[in-house]
Amino acid sequence: MENNKGLASQNNRYAMAGRVEHHAEHDAPITRKPELLCPAGSLEVLKVAVRYGADAVYIGGDAYGLRAKAHNFSYEDMKKGIEYAHSHNVKVYVTANIYAHDRDLDGIHEYFKELAKIKPDAVLIADPGVFMIAKKEMPEMELHISTQANNTNYEEFNFWYSLGAKRVVSARELSIEEIKDIRAHIDPDREIESFVHGAMCISYSGRCILSNYFTGRDANQGECTHPCRWKYYVTEETRPGEYLPVEENERGTYIFNSKDLCMVGHIPELMDAGIDSYKIEGRMKTALYVATVARTYRKAIDEYLESPELYKEHLSLYQTEIEKCTYRRFTTGFFFGKPGADEQIYDSNTYITGCTYYGYVHSFDEKGNPVFEQKNKFSVGEDIEIMKPDGRDIKVKVLEMYDEYGNPMESCPHPKQNVHIVLSEKPELFDLLRSCPE
Prior knowledge:
Blueprint: H1 8-12, E1 19-23, E2 26-32, E3 35-39, H2 43-51, E4 56-60, H3 75-87, E5 91-95, H4 102-118, E6 122-125, H5 128-137, E7 143-145, H6 154-163, E8 167-169, H7 176-184, E9 191-198, H8 210-215, E10 233-234, E11 244-245, E12 260-262, H9 267-273, E13 277-280, H10 287-306, H11 308-313, H12 315-322, E14 330-331, E15 356-364, E16 370-373, E17 383-387, E18 393-402, E19 418-423, E20 432-435
Parallel strand pairs: 3-4, 3-13, 4-5, 5-6, 6-7, 7-8, 8-9, 9-13, 12-14
Antiparallel strand pairs: 1-2, 9-12, 10-11, 15-16, 15-20, 16-19, 17-18, 17-20, 18-19
Helix pairs in contact: 2-3, 2-10, 4-5, 7-9, 10-12
């Protein structure tokens, strides 16, 4: 039986009061309680997202989503994930947001028939043809329109709503004021979803052809190789093989390398814009990343709803917590105007790493010792940290460590090994183990 300690505040948040707003075209006040929507590239990460504060999780199946290189979900894992999330009052959305070719269509028909059987809460689509297939094969399914559809004005939003979409994801190129204006021109029960955190694509609405051009792997078919993170040079046609750095000074040559989006310090503006769902990017990210971002945004949203003064008081805390996972420095993207040269990173394509992730407690052995799948090496005698869903971080000492056969170990050097551990304080199910720099 899983320990549900720490979920009380998560379940109570549904009863919290949201803001009340008025719209130019609609006289009745509307209460908006923003949804925190988190990514999951595997069943393991889905469970972590659920435990660490997500209201909803978006996942991809083995096909037809835009993260072909993510672990993604088999049909059985998708079914298990939906059941698990629903048992904790969390929704699951499935991405099917490729731009389809004729060769994809027969498979999409069959895929949607199978999806309808396991009842996710919505399916996310970009292609109008795929949208029409979804309406035919899943007539009861809630449909959301992906940011890939380049949704930039209220007439476009209303177009999709008129076809039966419940929610439209705003293009990343929209400002807060533009989203606010869209909200004023759409029906009150129609929903807006916006990315608020994570990696930024350098191409308009993610419609990039660099990957296809360089490698034959189509970003719009879910196979992006992220050439925006590569280092570039220029050549002169009469000097083949002579590479000249693309630089103005010593900063470097990463000319397409955007900073990561972070809006945790701007919850009031997001609320005022009337955004229904705050979306976190990262279906290829680790459980530590998802847990850290989910827990921090959960705290920021809930504290703002409880008291704007409390939220303001904790702004630096939110930022410190966010920086404990991997990131590429931060920007507010297009929310407050078009990004300039300062929103790019010119000297490196690597992530900044905050804390080191060791794994999460997935079970207990017959002696009651926690068991986790090891991600990074640490040793007996070290001080590490237990990261809990309820917001606490507890420093503990590693007292003992055993392999799956009960043999004592001094350290755990082998990734993916199941390790049995004794700590100075016993963790609970789904607690994460990590170490953070002082």
